[in-house]
Amino acid sequence: MGQTAGSLPLKRFVNDPREIVRDALEGYLWTHPDVQLLEGYPETKVLVQKSWRRSNGQVAVISGGGSGHEPADVGMIGEGLLTAVVCGEVFAAPSAYAVAQCLEAVTGPAGTLVVVRSNPGTRLNFLSAVKEARSRLQLRIRVVCVADDVASSLKSGDHHRDFKQARGIAGSLLVYKIAGAAAAAGLNLEQVYQETVLAAAAVRTQGVCFTSCTIPGTQTARPLPPDEMEVGLGLHGEPGLRVKATAETSAKEVVETIMSQLGSFVPPKGPLCVMLNNLGTVAQIEMSVVAGQVMRSELGSRIKLFIGPAHLMTALDTNGISISVLPLQDSEEPEEELDEAQGSELSRLGLRAERLLAATSCRHWVPAMMPCQPQSFRAESATRRLQRRSLSGRFPDSEHPVARSLLERACRAVLGAENELNALDAQVADGDLGRSMSNAARLLLSELNSGHLPLVYPGPLFLRIADIMRCVDGMLAALLSVFFGRAGRALMPRRSRPLLHKSSSSHSGLGAYKVHKAHTRRLRSADSGLHRQTAASSSLSLSNACGWQREGVLRAFR
């Protein structure tokens, strides 16, 4: 697993931390046959499209920077995106010599556009290499710097910010895509440059992190306390805009904070493209929650293209997200004119949207999509199905005070023990028992309070409870559904007379149920059936582990 600088165990899939970039690039090439190394590796780490030819008459688009942000930048090589990428060590800018080698290798008569993330080392080395290539080799090269980080922009006056010294972060990927699509469309170098530089000036990004990253072989440079988050933390762990408490912060509040800040840096009207980026270790289920909140934010109605949620530009194991916003039109147009424009919605969105939607051979680029309002398949809810279930019309919904009291007390007890049940389940399983049983209790209470249970009839009542259990997730709900289903069928009477009688006495409990000995025997039979189901399930798990024949185990419990 590798060792840290202090010879402490490193819980990472690493051989030697000093060779991690070399090992990663070689592993990447095994699974990406459309990419190749430029001669001079490993002293220069340059990857190029295998199909690229300088004589093809197309503008080359290159970029690069420190490693550790995968799939960016290496993962963005492909037709319609980047032609080549120059890689540095983890979070370290590649050398000017490596950049110069890349420029000489890929630049043909059509020229090269260099897209540089505006970080001091990267910008210095790339610009130095460009200057040398222009003077020594007379290559046609244009440069676009991307400085999209809101957190590192400087205030230059009231409500204005200067982005000249801002960091270049995830928004650069949108710029890559526009440049690559313009080049693939056959535009000349100046035309590709003009589209790209306008996009770079318009894109804005803001991020938030709960933890910083750890470079393999080192300790976390700036660990964040468990109850804090940092707004605008840099891709390399640089300080962000501010640190704030997270104890009571919801996804809704985090997204609203980010989108509100981004909203102040884009035109007040017009369609937008939003890219939702996972910076490392945020669970996919949480990313979907964030995506929903983005669409419900103050900018949501203007979002016409959505990219993600996905890992696009990461920062190793950072637990955080970034959101990039790019206006799809540079000039503000009245909404009425856009609505009356001829053609499809795509043509109304403009050329920038067309570039973002253009095809690419790059496997790691996530295609932009037009978001739509969540749709529902028209079907009855579980509660409605339960309400309409009628056991041949023979057993109407009915009231019985003792049965109601017993069910209410049982449900309240389950609700009160939710956390305890979760804790007990977590010791041997996934810790969701309390939650699933509480869901069952709430659904049963809802049916009870709506008067939709045949409380006077034990058999039909148990069958209805079995139905409720079938609507609840989890294994115990399934077992309880088997039990109540068997019990209900065992207690079904031959005639439709009530088997539960309202007792005039003040005592409660099973004494209120006048159940015949035959019904007791049937309940025992149902209980034994439940035991057979449970034993069969446990034995099947054991048989899988031991290699026993499945059918033989099933026959033993029939």
UniProtKB/TrEMBL annotation:
Entry-linked Gene3D superfamilies: 1.25.40.340, Dihydroxyacetone kinase, domain 1, Dihydroxyacetone kinase, domain 2
Domain of life of the native organism: Eukaryota
GO CC terms in record: cytosol
GO biological process: glycerol catabolic process
DhaK domain: residues covered: 16-349
GO molecular function annotations of the record: glycerone kinase activity
PANTHER family referenced in this protein's UniProt entry, alphabetically: TRIOKINASE/FMN CYCLASE (PTHR28629), TRIOKINASE_FMN CYCLASE (PTHR28629:SF4)
Descriptive protein name: DhaK domain-containing protein
Organism this protein belongs to: Polarella glacialis
Record lineage: Eukaryota, Sar, Alveolata, Dinophyceae, Suessiales
